Amino acid sequence: VRDGDKIPVDVINKRLDVHISDEEMARRRSEWRYTPDSSISGYLARYAKLVSSASEGAVLK
Questions:
Q1: Does residue 61 sit within a domain?
Q2: What's the total number of domains in the chain?
Q3: What is the structure's pLDDT at 36?
């Protein structure tokens, strides 16, 4: 979603839409690159790095 995109909110049907063309969506998807959020710090960063899986109880190692 970018500045200026029209985003109608349908509360009754619990739905958000972005009104852009299929071509624009395809272009944006092709340009998008994952970048890890390096702003996570403190306890949340420690938890994200050291937590075990949910099947193991999601406890810090």
A1: no
A2: 1
A3: 78
